[in-house]
Amino acid sequence: MTASAEIDSAHKYSILIVTPDTVGERMAGPAIRAWEIARALSSTAHVRLASTVGATITHPDFEVYHAGKDALRPHALWADVIITQGHILRSHPWLKDLDTIIVADIYDPLHLEQLEQGKDLPEADRYAVALDAVEVMNDQMERADFMLCASEKQRDFWLGQLAALARINPSTYDQDPSLRSLLDIAPFGIEDNPPVQTTHGIRGVVDGIGHDDKVIIWGGGIYNWFDPISLIKAVNIVAVAHPNLRLFFLGVKHPNPDVPTMAMELRTRVLADELGLTNTVVFFNETWVPYRERANFLLDADLGVSTHLDHVETAYSFRTRILDYLWASLPIIATDGDTFAPIIRDNGLGEIVPAEDVDALAAAIERLLFDEELLAATSARVKTYAVDHTWSRMLDPLIAFCANPHKAADRERGVISQRNQIVADLNKRIAGIESSSSWRSTAWLRALSEGVSQLRKR
């Protein structure tokens, strides 16, 4: 029996899910995850999904809102439980002061992503953004009553950070020595229903890709921590013997306007142009595919690919695009080093290659894509494996928590780290000084001093 079946239907809690991503026909990972969480919880709770940047679609089972800045406040006051992602607590710090139960969805270690993403920034900006990203994670992990991550390996990583923040303490340990009641695993999932193709998305639609071509799909955006460069070089090698080989990049323009075009995308386009592959062998879909239409594209492919660089972000990542490959029963070629590599290798779901090894990647494409018997057998194993990775199963820990939401034991007891206690004491002293009559009576003198200081700087 799943957690959802055990929930007492006599009481429905009010649950607010907040995402900093665009909720619409075209959605990226964070918004998709928030949407599927809302769907999973809507049968047992009153659910609102709020996007701080934009919401243009609705759902019959839960409410959807665009709630930027102060518009988020009434929704937060309505909720018994607030589930947050990304920088929400950092950009809306008043949420931390509410007595409401907060769940932090920390499936994405964005402070590791930022190390790679920020390389294109001026040095001062890069350091500022990177250090702020660390505090974005700290804000969530210090305040949350319950947290979700994407894998056991990622959980080990987060446990280290929780220990440094003093969240692993006698209260949380005595409540549950495994600490699962504080931090559990709820990975990305796949839809419960298998994909259905209603029309072709690639074959016979994209000029240059025919019904008999062999299609490799890159199922998402092109970001700095990925390695499409080695992939294009490998495809260029294989295409000499197999002129019907095609590589299709599913999404280029991110649906969230706050996500910039990254240097890796520009490098990828330049390389495809230099090799004479653009629109003959390598194709870029210039828009983001609507979430409900992605099956039309995935089912037009023969193989899914995910290649990345060898760095710390890879080690703790959870490549959500691979879930779409599982959903569509696509054999997978991926780079070694991330969470999915041993899963693909151990379950016969495709081929794993070393990072930036063009020859190994070309050999894997040749071996898997052009052996029809091997390709079909691999696809069958992918289909079997995918059955146990639906959203309804993956979100069981969250569903169980939301059936009986409660404060973390250390928050209930008022446990605070020495570092935060020092800050709290200083803030209290400052507030006391600033409220004193002597401080108010000398305000004119401080203003005069500031004015003189500004004049000297000119």
Spell out the blueprint of helices and strands.
Elements: H1 3-6, E1 14-19, H2 29-41, E2 46-51, E3 63-66, H3 73-78, E4 81-85, H4 88-91, E5 101-105, H5 110-117, H6 123-143, E6 146-149, H7 152-164, H8 170-175, E7 183-185, E8 214-218, H9 228-241, E9 245-249, H10 263-274, E10 282-284, H11 294-298, E11 303-306, H12 312-315, H13 321-327, E12 332-335, H14 340-346, E13 350-353, H15 358-369, H16 372-386, H17 391-394, H18 396-403, H19 409-413, H20 418-434, H21 437-441, H22 443-457
Parallel strand pairs: 1-2, 1-4, 2-3, 4-5, 5-6, 6-7, 8-9, 8-11, 9-10, 11-12, 12-13
Write up this protein.
With 458 residues, the protein is of the alpha/beta class. The chain folds into 3 domains: 3-188 and 393-413, Glycogen Phosphorylase B (Rossmann fold), CATH 3.40.50; 214-389, 3-Layer(aba) Sandwich (Rossmann fold), CATH 3.40.50; 418-457. It is built from 22 helices and 13 strands. A 7-stranded parallel sheet has the order 3-2-1-4-5-6-7, sandwiched between helices. A 6-stranded parallel sheet has the order 10-9-8-11-12-13, with helices on both faces. Strand 1, helix 2 and strand 2 (46-51) form a beta-alpha-beta unit. Helix 9 crosses helix 15 and helix 13 crosses helix 16 (372-386).
